């Protein structure tokens, strides 16, 4: 089957590459000719483990290609996936659908035969019907269906999530569209991964509900962590005790410096906004959004306590600035709140992150960059672990402490314990939801 994918951002590229690996003929389209040139040379514009090799393999077989020519891509395609950006619109917090609708119109004008127009971008409930209206207006004679096929890919694990999904959700209106979608996902169906077929609105809602639920779960454990600190409990033990209850589950119960990334912040805001517009506000999600901001600010207070109440004149090494490990993405990363607070308070900040520098240089001015965590800690008064990259999980803490002027550790991902820190010679240590080690 021939498939076109519009947009070679994170979702579009991963989907296009994986669909070609299923055996389909896939053409990925983007308006950005530099991006297409890069892809044609075999270079992947994003950091995603394993994507380059999978892309190379499928380009070699001739199943995967890249173009700026939308007409050629759509010619003969039975399905066209819209995977363009839906950023949060300034002012009202809504998802900005300009790019989705522009793509729908272009597809309508380019298509000649029956085609299923599938939205992969995360879009508010009701968008697929609007896409259908735009297509009908642009090309009244076109025989087409729309489908909603939200993605549930985690950055850093996207290929596995695509190839071995917990489920695939497909929203359709006709049997014909359902049949096309079923043949696209046939390799997964054969391996008995659940494929859920729903109406359009339910598919759109599933994505938002799932992400808002996960953001809520993280925020819940973050608030429990704050209380654990006050009552002398250990949030790691609490999370384990909770998570072994199958109804709760042990995933997404890691307390930390607040969720970030390209999905949770944007999707929770868009869901809250839609709910308000339908006069059915989801107060729980509105609170989660607010609390997550407070969690990030609470991290600054924690570090301030660790530094005797002032950042002024301190030298701080920050290990990890991306919103989570195995990505170069810094969107809504807690580092964007915490690092400016350190700099604003008068600290000199050195950052070490295996992939964050490319985006981070523009977003975090006035910091310097080090490739080596030990070099970053040289003469420092505080080391902060902000992202749990594997490189920072197995540090030689004694060696780190020896290089510092004042050995203090802010472990905002609970990678170590107060005992580890004390043994290694740290004079002060804070983590999340557990006993801290602050002298005096
Ligand atoms: C998420 C969803 O998991 C995915 O299904 C969706 O389609 C896109 O959004 P992603 O943003 O890549 O994926 O990362 P994820 O691993 O879900 O983490 C999101 C944020 O939550 C990160 O900032 C992470 O550090 C934080 N997090 C996650 C926690 O603080 N604690 C946890 O227990 C889990």
Describe the structure.
- The protein contains 18 helices and 14 strands.
- It is elongated, with a radius of gyration of 24 Å.
- It has 2 domains: 2-198, NAD(P)-binding Rossmann-like Domain (Rossmann fold, 3-Layer(aba) Sandwich); 232-440, Rossmann fold.
- 44% of the residues lie in helices and 14% in strands.
- The strands form 2 sheets. The chain has an 8-stranded mixed beta sheet, with helices on both faces. A 6-stranded parallel beta sheet has the order 11-10-9-12-13-14.
- It binds uridine-5'-diphosphate-xylopyranose.
Provide the CATH architecture of the largest domain.
3-Layer(aba) Sandwich
Main β-sheet, in a few words?
A: 8 strands, mixed
Globular, elongated, flat, extended or rod-shaped: what is the shape? elongated
CATH class of the largest domain: Alpha Beta
| Widest sheet, order of strands | 3-2-1-4-5-6-7-8
Number of strands: 14
- Termini separation: 69 Å
Measured by DSSP, the beta-strand proportion falls in 5-15%
- Distinct ligands: uridine-5'-diphosphate-xylopyranose
Q: Residue ranges: pLDDT <50 for 5 or more in a row?
A: none
Helix content: 40-55%
What's the CATH topology label of the largest domain?
Answer: Rossmann fold
Radius of gyration: 24 Å
Determine the structural class based on helices, strands and strand pairing.
alpha/beta
Give the count of helical stretches.
18
